[in-house]
Write a structure and sequence with these properties.
about 15% strand, Rossmann fold, alpha/beta, six-stranded parallel sheet, about 375 residues, globular, 2 domains, seven-stranded parallel sheet
Length: about 375
């Protein structure tokens, strides 16, 4: 089976891009020949990539040009199936790893004033994204949509009325050996010493780029209301990092909040933490949720995070509204109690153990086989 997998860019700090890289080996292990179609890819995987890198001036021409370039490029190659992780009409399978753009804008608008909402409404890039998304979902060639959470599945039904038979929920996978509770024994003491924090401090961790969407501002506001021994560690890249550093200073959190920037190796940070917190405005799934659970960290996230579907309130952590500061403070506060936190940590690891890369790849392979089966064959 020859599969083309489309993902425009590679960002070592981006969860969606890291997912593609990690999924490739798992899918190939199912006997599937995968070619990644992309603008750029790491040199060690270059032989597996088909480069499509037309010039562009800004984000709109970047996405438009890539989509048109891919459509032309695919006509020159013979693939059994084309699976896109971008909003490009004409694919056989669309993996909705970025969720629904219109829904993201709706959730984002909840945290905006009237002028900001008007600016977003008039932005041509967002108009293009919504139009491309609709064209793709309504394309007669589209045969299946991989939804990475039930939340995304419902968003697609609500916005586009897609037949439910086309929507397949396949959760992401995680390396349960790499992300493991033993990280604490390996990294906790040294990482905390490097930060000037003690073993008795309770460390909250957020891993992810795009601080506005991930809820860093609300998390800083929550930290201000929590006891002084609670610290916040933010790992990720963001153009507005200086703004959030200044906000932390303004709130008097200089010694309690640390911004580590983008990191190729996030394991030491999972090892140093006690609780993972991401009050995101909109997250289709959130690979970091699974990484945290597998590392034995209780998780506090939002109702618009697909990965929150793996959390039963009070068991592996808590799920709260992304803008409910009171609920966020209460959830973190509940996990300050050590007995509850340790029980939640064990439950978190247990929950993650079923979501391996192999399990995910087997579901992908079964879907491909179903789509390629002769008519009338189950």
């Amino acid at each position: 089976m020859k599969l083309a997998l489309i993902r425009q860019k590679y960002n070592p700090y981006g969860g969606a891009e890291r997912f593609v890289e990690r999924a490739l080996d798992a899918i190939r292990a199912q006997g599937i020949a995968v070619t990644i179609v992309t603008r750029r890819w790491p040199a060690d995987n270059a032989q597996q990539a088909l480069i499509c890198d037309p010039p562009y001036l800004e984000s709109l021409t970047r996405d438009w040009g890539f989509a048109r370039g891919v459509q032309r490029l695919l006509q020159q190659h013979d693939f059994d199936l084309v699976q896109s992780h971008e909003r490009i009409p004409g694919c056989d399978i669309y993996r909705a790893g970025d969720g629904v753009h219109a829904e993201w804008l709706r959730q984002r608008s909840r945290a905006m004033g009237a002028l900001e909402r008007a600016r977003i409404a008039l932005n041509p890039y967002h108009a293009y994204m919504k139009a491309a998304e609709r064209e793709m979902f309504l394309s007669p060639r589209l045969r299946a949509v991989i939804c990475i959470s039930n939340m995304v599945r419902q968003d697609i039904i609500e916005h586009f009325g897609i037949a439910e038979s086309m929507l397949h929920v396949i959760y992401n996978g995680v390396d349960t050996e790499k992300f493991h509770p033993r990280l604490a024994a390996e990294y906790r003491a040294a990482q905390r010493r490097a930060l000037g924090w003690s073993d008795s401090d309770l460390v909250l961790l957020l891993v992810g780029s795009g601080f506005e969407r991930k809820g860093v501002g609300l998390l800083l506001a929550a930290l201000r209301q929590l006891p002084p021994h609670i610290r916040l560690l933010v790992v990720g890249k963001d153009k507005q990092e200086k703004h959030y550093r200044r906000l932390a200073t303004k709130l008097g959190l200089d010694q309690r909040a640390h911004f580590a920037g983008g990191q190729n190796d996030v394991l030491p940070y999972y090892g140093a933490a006690d609780v993972f917190v991401m009050p995101t405005l909109y997250e289709p799934f959130g690979n970091v949720i699974l990484e945290a659970l597998a590392s034995g960290l209780p998780v506090v996230t939002s109702t618009k995070c697909g990965g929150g579907e793996l959390i039963d309130n009070g068991r592996e952590g808590y799920v709260v509204d992304a803008l409910d500061l009171t609920a966020l403070v209460a959830a973190i506060g509940a996990l300050c109690e050590s007995t509850h936190r340790h029980a939640a940590a064990k439950a978190a690891r247990s929950r993650a153990e079923a979501y391996t890369w192999q399990a995910m790849a087997e579901q992908f392979s079964a879907l491909y086989a179903k789509l390629l089966a002769p008519a009338g064959v189950a």
